[in-house]
Amino acid sequence: MGVLSEALDGMVRAVFAYECDGLDATAVAAIRVGRTDRWVRSVADSGLFTERDVRRVEAAWRADPELLVDALLDGADEVTRRRCTARRVRPVPAQLRQVPAFG
Q1: Interatomic CA distance for residues 26 and 13, integer angstroms
Q2: Phi, psi torsion values for 17, nearest 5 degrees
Q3: In the chain, where the domains are located
Q4: Source organism's superkingdom (predicted)?
């Protein structure tokens, strides 16, 4: 579930339109290793989304953190955008992330 609808993605980007001021390489690195809780709380606290939408957003970001990076960089200047996208990582497919159970 790494895909957001265009409408939901657009609303998230609108919420984050002014968040890129504090965005730096450290914040992007944290997002890329799965630390998205701060941003999920921002979406939830905005009051614009249903609980179901927040869960969809969270699931999509866990599957592909670059979706969150892209949303945050949507309103960023070119220098910030280049600095924060220089080390993009491709999402690992879900079937490769699962560790087989031993028993």
Answers
A1: 20
A2: -55, -30
A3: 25-90
A4: Bacteria
